[in-house]
Amino acid sequence: MRAQQADSGDSALYASHQKIYPREVSGRFTRLRVTAILTLLGIYYLTPFLQWGGRQAILFDLPARKFHLFGLTLWPQDFIYLAALLILAGLSLFFFTALLGRVWCGYACPQTVWTEAYLWMERKIEGKRSARMKLDKAPTSAEKIRIKILKHTVWITFSLWTGFTFVGYFTPIDQLAGKLFSASLGPWETFWILFYSFATYGNAGFMREQVCKYMCPYARFQSAMFDSDTLIVAYHPERGEPRGSRRRGTDFEAQGLGACIDCNVCVQVCPTGIDIRDGLQYECIACSACIDACDEIMDKMSYPRGLIKYTTENAAEGKPQHILRPRVMVYATILLVLCGILVTHLVQRIPLELDVIRDRNTLYRETRDGLIENVYTLKLLNMDEKPHRYILHAEGIDGLKLVTDQEEIFVEAGTVYQMVVRLQADEFNLEQRSVPVSFHLQAADANHLTITEEARFVGPGKT
């Protein structure tokens, strides 16, 4: 599409995308970021190969409706725990954003992690920043085609490995590998491997900073979580301005210059292509590349470091800083409370579920012995990793009788057992037409596996 010019004729309403060629940088924050990226990639690619109790340690088994997290197995009935984890993740993002700014974006966001991986491969194949720029501008040649094909072959291979690993969290990865080598992958497994591979290839290989700038909503609402004491990456104009080039060792202050030599290295290393000297911008992901680049230049010029650094608005203006402020304390308190509740519930969780459904076709019936009888359908879900034998009894009415064909109920691990039982009671002991009763289920071989479910017993009642 041709760029449409504004009335002034000097600005475009629609501008074509300009590819960014981030320059390689080294420094303390870069080493920290690389360590974080390698750690996260290692966790992602190696976790499916971990074993726990004869099975994959982390496996989201959708067909069996079981989610294995090391020694913990969750079922659809445990969806509340997933909801709690999502809430905790959201609150954690608010807390760390209010305290440390966009450290998530710069060090741990999947988009950042995989983009750095793809950039590393690109640098190894195409060369440094200047070489990559020169290669893209060069006319088509056999050498250029060879380099580009090599790069995209490596990218696609890495993407397919990423997609394969992703599906390995839902299908046991040893089985998945066997299906892959025997060319017997199912349609859904094939689809998700290719889909996730394509998404990684496109987002990290091509779109890169465009995902952060135009697609990610976090950059848009981060200002609601920022305040004057939030950690940001900032350039200090009072020290750096006015900018200007100079020889090393000259008295720049006598020339009326600031510490910034206007080398633009901070712009060249920025993965989103912004100039941090223009002030805080929503495109900044706080990756600290400009800090390391500027510190390196300051070292070469024998100037003090810190022209660009992590700071806060209050600190930059010489005002007192407040780390423990109301917003942070509220987020921290809510996080601690919710974490405590979640951990307590997980520790006290009983891997046993009992559903009681009373037969509504007949309110009640009278037996030959003159007793009032209600019929119930019971569904027993053994959410443990081992089979168990259970003993069932009921109470709530004097002389209540439980009629069942089994004294003990055997339920295999991870299965649902359905049975029909009858409760019988003397009409004389029924104070009302509807009386609360309770079913108690107790594992015969594990005292901690016990559950109680409430129900209603319906009869004629006393007149």
Count up the domains: 2
**Contiguous runs where pLDDT drops below 50 for at least 5 residues:** 1-11
Q: Name the overall outline.
A: elongated
Averaged pLDDT: 91
- The level of helicity is 40-55%
Q: Beta-strand level of the residues, as a percent range?
A: 15-25%
Q: N-to-C terminal Cα separation, in Å?
A: 85 Å
Radius of gyration: 32 Å
How would you classify the quaternary structure?
single chain
Number of alpha- plus pi-helical segments = 15
Compute the number of strand runs: 16
Structural class: alpha+beta
Main sheet summary: 5 strands, antiparallel
List keywords for this structure.
alpha+beta; 16 strands; single chain; 2 domains; Immunoglobulin-like; disordered N terminus
Explain the overall architecture.
By secondary structure, the chain is α+β, with helices and mostly antiparallel strands. The protein folds into 2 domains: 16-349, no CATH class; 352-458, Sandwich (Immunoglobulin-like). The protein has helices spanning 28-46, 79-100, 103-108, 110-126, 129-137, 142-167, 173-181, 187-207, 209-215, 218-221, 237-240, 265-268, 289-301, 313-316, 326-348, and strands at 51-52, 55-56, 58-61, 66-69, 72-74, 232-235, 308-311, 352-358, 365-366, 371-382, 388-395, 401-403, 409-411, 416-426, 434-443, 450-458. Strands 8, 9, 10, 12 and 14 form a 5-stranded antiparallel β-sheet that branches. The protein starts with 27 loop residues before the first helix and ends in a 5-residue tail after the last strand. Residues 1-11 have low confidence and may be disordered.
